[in-house]
Amino acid sequence: MIPGREVTRIFISDVKNRIENDGLTDDTECDEVLKTTLVEAHERGIEVYALFAVSDDEFSEKEMADYANQFNTACGDEWSYFDGVAVNNEYFSKVKDCDDESEKLAQLQFLTDIQTTVENAAPLPLHFSVSWNWDCCSCSSDSYEKRELLWDGNTKSALEHMVNIVDSVDVQVAYNKPSVMEERATNAHQYWDDIAEKSSTSAFYVLAYANPNSICQLSFAPHAKGSETATDECFIGDRTESGMYTAFDEIESNLPGAIGGIHFMGGVYSSGITDDWPKHDSPTCPLHQKWKAGKNKCVNKCAKKGGKVWDSDKCVCACPICRKWKNKKCRNRCNSAKKWNETKQKCIKKDSGKEGWIWDKSGKTCVSV
Model-level pTM? Predict the structure, then answer.
């Protein structure tokens, strides 16, 4: 983990076969490798979305969207669960002609399929991956022409419809030069930014490719696809990890709320293939702990003295919900006959029918009663 560059959400592939039988594997069992992965991610404060990417004209992902819910029901627990569903269906790129009527119908069906996928994924949020050029018939800056579609009673660009339908999006800008990445993401970002009431999970990502591509300037990988050497020559872009992070910083600074995202982290990221793509294999710790090099182990972020615990929502050490800081230590908010009501921010009778919190001495934690 690089300080200031923490991963907050991952879209994990290779899950379909692990959860497609009512949330179970082909052997009708909970996939233990998947459960362990989910636990390790959540311990580090990382959200995990189940990613499906068939990219066919039938939009098969819409039938898979409920698998994550089925897994959560059959195998989920406090730490092992999916936070959402992600879809990467790129069939739209095959039917994006603006003058062919049959392709226009296919484009409209694509939007309907996305809506169906949102409904099938509920109550989990749906993340969708889009291409920057789905917004336009002519994408040249000199003659930009939006791809306008009448769908669900509204005429908007195809890309604006997509951004409005789903909960969060990532934009594949397919370039390694920051200014071009920002330019290609601008319209999609504006559509997202214009959404008045965003959910707590709504997000907008601009992707950088970390996997080698046949065209060198499309990726930050230090070599093109099929290269026999770790590095080769490319006259466009800074194809290093620092170059990628510089692009993220520029985009996040100029597009409020945007987040840089790494496409295919299994590419050159943390591979050590060159000095400019170093390994990041130092131990990582659960969210409430930090690595102590001198002791060669994870230790709690919050000192035992005083009684503070890690508040993952605020990222600080704080007293548990039923206690408050007084005279240099955490002390109970209420006496033994009462419980703490967080909504009203006051102590109420312990036998009240309303929810409250009391201190459990044996477990050294606040419990809900």
Answer: 0.78
* Other C-beta atoms lying within 10 Å of the C-beta of residue 361: 8
130, 252: one domain: yes
Distance of CA 31 to the CA centre of its chain: 22
- Stated length of the chain: 369
Task: Give 346's strand partners.
Answer: 341
Question: What is the domain range of residue 348?
Answer: 302-368
Residues forming a β-bridge with 27:
none
Residue 281 lies in a domain: no
CA distance 213 to 233: 13
pLDDT, position 313: 64
Among residues 317, 312, 320, 319, the alpha carbon closest in space to that of 6 is found at 312
pLDDT tens per residue across span 297-354: 888 888 888 889 887 666 788 999 999 999 989 999 999 999 999 888 999 999 988 8
Shared domain for 244 and 310, answered yes or no, is: no
- Residue 141: phi, psi to the nearest 5? -60, -25
Q: Is there a single domain that holds both residue 84 and residue 164?
A: yes
Amino acid at 369: V
Q: Do residue 37 and residue 115 come from a single domain?
A: yes
3 state SS of 250: helix
Does 287 fall in a domain?
no
The better pLDDT of the pair 116, 300 is held by 116
Structural domains counted in the chain: 2
Q: Residue ranges of the alpha helices (H) in 27-148? A: 32-43, 61-64, 67-75, 101-121
Q: How many helices (H) and strands (E) does the chain have?
A: 8, 21
**Number of other CB atoms surrounding residue 277 within 10 Å:** 24
Q: Report which residue type is found at 140.
A: S
In a domain, 308, yes or no: yes
Asked if residue 120 and residue 15 are part of one domain, the reply reads: yes
Per-residue pLDDT tens over the stretch 194-218 = 999 999 999 999 999 999 998 999 9
- Identify whether residues 244 and 96 lie together within a single domain: yes
* 165/107 same-domain check: yes
Tokens of 257: 């709320």
